[in-house]
Structures are given as C-alpha cells and as structure tokens.
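User: Structure tokens for both sequences below?

Assistant:
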Amino acid sequence: MNNVAHSDIERLRDGIDAAWEEARKFGLDPFPTHFELVPASIMYEFASYSLPGRFSHWTHGKAFYRQKMQYDLGLSKIYEMVVNTNPSYAFLMDMNNLLQNTFVAAHVFGHTDFFKNNAYFQHTSRRMIDKVSIHAERIAKYEFDHGKDEVERYLDAVLSIQEHIDYNLLLNREAPADAEEGSKTPSTEFDDIWGLEDRAKRAEEERELKPGKPPKFPEKPEKDLLLFLIHHSPHLEPWQRDVIEIVRTEMLYFIPQMQTKVMNEGWASIWHSRIMRQLGDRGLLPTPRRSSSRSCTPAS
C-alpha cells in the first residue's frame, strides 16, 4: 500500500467503478465487492490459510513458505484472491500496475457473480470470515486448556480425512415414501420385474435382523465420515467433537470451489475480457505511470 501513490489509488478506484458499471450492463449480478491493496507477504499469507483469520496449523505455514518462495523466485504469482462472502472481499497485489489491477478487478466481478448465482454455492455461508475467526478462537482456547501439542496432533489426524464429507448437499439422503410409491404406477405387464431388486433387498434385511444376530451398523453406508465420527464415536471428548465439526464446516465451504474450479475461472475470464474490451472502446482503460523503482514479477 505504501508503494502506491494516492493518485494511482484514485485512478484505480475509477477503473473499478467503470468495470462494475460494464459488468452490470452485461447482466452480471455480483455481490458488492470490497477491494484491498496488499503486499505480497499478506497476499500469500491469506492464500496459504485460504481465508483471513483461519486457525493456525503447520500445514498453513508450509503452504505459505512454498507459495512465497515461488513468488520470490519469479516462478508464479497470485494476481488476486477473492472471498465468497456477502459482501465479497477481493485482495489485489500492490506491486501490480494500475492496468493490471483494473484488469484483475474485472476478473473478480466474474467470480463474485459466479459465487452468488451458481447452484453449488447456494448453501455456503456468506459470513464465513466471521465464522473462521470464531473457530480460531475456540481452537486457541483448546490449545490453552489441553496443550498445544495435544491439539496439534489431533488436528493432524482430523485434517488427514477432511475431504471425507458428503459433497452432495443438494441431494436428499432419502426420497419420501409417497413420492417413491407414486412413481411406480404400472404401465405394462412387465412392471413387476423392476421390483425384483427391492424385494431382494428387503429379504436380505429380514435375514440380517434374525434373533441372535446384531443389527447392521450403520443401517446404510455413510459417506460423511466426519459427521459419522461426531455422532457415533464413543471415545471422543467434547472438545474433540467440536474440532471435527469446525473442520467439517470449513470443508463444506471449500468443496464447491474445488468442484467448480475450471468453470469458475472460465466464467471470470470470459467476462473480464468483455468488460475490458468495452472499457477500451470507451477510452476508459487506465495507463500505468512509468517508474523505474517498481517492477512486476512475470507470472508463470
């Protein structure tokens, strides 16, 4: 921020406002977006934690060291980081020039439109920055109560299975009985064939429930391993269940971003090219000032 002249900040603000106007003209409906200029160290810290204010763990430090070293060596560069909240937060690199950051802002509006309107994100928390800050406070309290090493060892175990959750949030676990019966109206003389599998399953269940044989547990396969441990593990202490719930809640927030990565980036890229073309046609593209004291590391 200190490397950016006040006049450049004003010009960047004007460029972002113009990009927002063009995005709305194209029919995009993004969340209101708050932009911040940050140095590389802050950008890579946020990127390594995935969200500002998240709980501390050595894996986040490892990610920071790897990403920051690649940036310092000129092997890669993060141009922006966007947070799926309402309002959204977008962090721009202060070492980018004025034109680059205007370009990136147009890209951001594609992302925030995608976050707001894509079906995969409809059940994600729009106040996740507040939530992860509360999670971090709870984990810090557990470290004080039970020891940092103990909590770290337990987090190591939970994070090793963090992706074993139920991704299909929009699917019902079990269809209503009346809806199932209503779909089985006979239409031909061979319709009874389709019931063979259901009858075989019922017969198998009856055999398993014979006297002297313990009932099947769980009754149905459970894909969400973290949720299963929270509800059924007889050995966990309350703080350990809470840590699993924290990790699970945060993973449910991140999973849609993993599922839609290519589509999300493609959507943002299509719209930043159209928005910037319109700004160029209107003569609104900012021209960066030349300065021998500032340079940009090339992206990979």
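Moving on to the next sequence.
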Amino acid sequence: MCRKLIALLLLLISCQFLYAQNNLLKDFPEGFGPKEVGKRLAYRFLDRKHMLHAGKWISYPETFNWTGALRYAKLTKDKKLLSLLEERFEKLTSQEKQLLPIMNHVDLNMFGSLPLELYQITKDKRYFDLGIPYADTQWAVPQNADKKQKEWAGKGFSWQTRLWIDDMYMITIVQAQAYKATGDRKYIERAASEMVLYLDELQRPNGLFYHAPDVPFYWGRGNGWMAAGMTELLRLLPKDNKDRPRILKGYETMMKSLKDFQRPGGMWNQLIDEPDCWAETSGSAMFAYALISGVKQGWLDKQEYAPVARKAWLAMVPYINEKGDVAEVCVGTNKKNDKQYYYDRPRNVGDSHGQSPYLWCTFALLEK
C-alpha cells in the first residue's frame, strides 16, 4: 500500500511538473498576456508617421512593424485592425506611391515581404504583383553591378550579398514570403544557401556572430537578425532540403550561447558578451522570438529552453510605456571596428527596430 501511495505521489508530481512546463509560454500575469500586449503594439503602429530610409522610401523597420501588426491581426482575427492596416497600405500605393522602395539594395528589397504578406491574407493579386519583383531582383544582376556583386552572383548567391549579419533577415524574409506566396522552392532554397554562406563566414565557435568579418563584436540586434532569419527559414524549409541540417545546427549552437549570456533579469546586452554593457530591447526581443519558436516547433528542448524564453518575455514587457512604445532601442547602426561605438549608440523610445520583434513574440506566443 505504501509503495502504491509513493508511486501515485511521484506520478502526481511528474504530471504537475509537465503541466507547468507546458504552460510556461501560455500562462502569464495580468498585463503580460501576448494578446493584450500585441494589441497595444499593433494599434500603436497605426498612429505612427512613416519611418523612411534615406528620407525617401519606406524603411525596413517600418516594413517589419507593419508586417508584424498584420500577422497579429490575422492570428487574432481582428478584422478592424486588418482593415485599418490594409487601408494604410492602399494609401501607400496611391498618393504616397513615391515612398515605395526601389529594388537596388538589400535594405530596400526586403519591402516585398509586406505586400506578399497582404497577398497571403487577402488573395488580392495586386499585392502579389507588387511584392514578387522585390524577391526576384535580389537574384537578377543589374547592368551597373560592380565586380564583387557579379562574383557573388556567379557563385549562385544574391548580388546584394555583403556579409553583414543584418542581411540574413533582409534576404531571408522576402524570399521566404515569395516561397509562401508561390510554392516555388527556388525562393526558399536560395535563401537557405545564402544562410549557410553567412553561417560559415560569420558564426564563431561560441555560436554568436561578428557584425561583419572585419568587425569582431557581438552586437545584439545584429545577432538578433541572424536568430530571426534562421527561425523564419526553419519554419518553412522542407525536411529534404540539403541545407536544413546545417542551419539547424547553427541555430542550436546560437540558442545555447544565448542561454548562457542571458542576464539574470532576462534581457541581453547591446554587446552580448560584455557584462557592463546596457540591456537592449530589440535584440532581446529577436532572441525571445527565436527561442519561443524553437520551443513550440520542437527544435529546442522544452524543459531547458521554455524557462529562458519566459524569463525574456517577462523582462521585456515592462519596457513598453503607456503609449505602447518600447524603450531602450538601439538606433540604426552601421558596422564599425570600434567597440566603444556600440557602447555609445543612442537609445530610442518607440523605434520600429524594437516595436517589430516585440510583435513577432506576441504571435509566436499565440500560435498553437
């Protein structure tokens, strides 16, 4: 009888433990729920002025903020929000048409991911026709391409290759969206091939990434672009893709390192491996998105990584102010071989660099 009671108690404890593990990314305190937080962030986007690239075209931070709000609206079936977001885009294709990015740079071509997201939601072919050229021209060498760009293209890579870690979200996201919109594997396969190039060139043995080959610093948001880019690819890559094992290995190695470098409070630093550097929100949110997705998709061990992801989310939410703006966001940052440069980067409030990945986290948490 005693043995049966002990066995029953052990079973009960085991069940309680499993229940707790399964709900780490579901049950949150009041004010921390992803639906509530996501609504604040998504509707806040509607009130924002355009964030332009070079003062001319819709920028990548705005593009990703917009797409994040669309995905949140779709997942939560918020028809009002979806209508307002589409209405804003309609204005962009009419009286604001001059703000549509040209197709000559990695930071501009990524814009195609936004109309392709709208196409997948609405099935309106106008969005498809607008978005696909942004994906196609990443691999169509222009007549004025320089020698290096032609060399990259000759090796099968995008002529926009430059080996900055930021690129592995900019290239990945538009190619991934083109794959989802068309079903044509060429888009996802060339993105995967590009990712392997960047992994081989930039990932260090500790799993983190230099900003560029000549900039040996582990910049937070730059590493975040890599983490999010690998996440997007792993979500979509067919199981028989030859590059999938390499990308999964790079992802797993990075996630282990991020677990080790997470601050006790849950955030990550502007320079990830520098304990005296400041906690930065955009990179932290990108890491959280990659971790949440990994746990839910089964790429990461739930018992080991769900607590890491939960700690990050609980640390991130208090940085959102009463207006729905995220604080402590590193401004747009070019590469520079100067460690102090990264320490001294200005910090913004409400910058779309931070708003976007926070939204990614909300729909990753809400996904079944």
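User: Anything stand out in the second?

Assistant: The beta strands are 52-53, 57-58, 329-330, 347-348.
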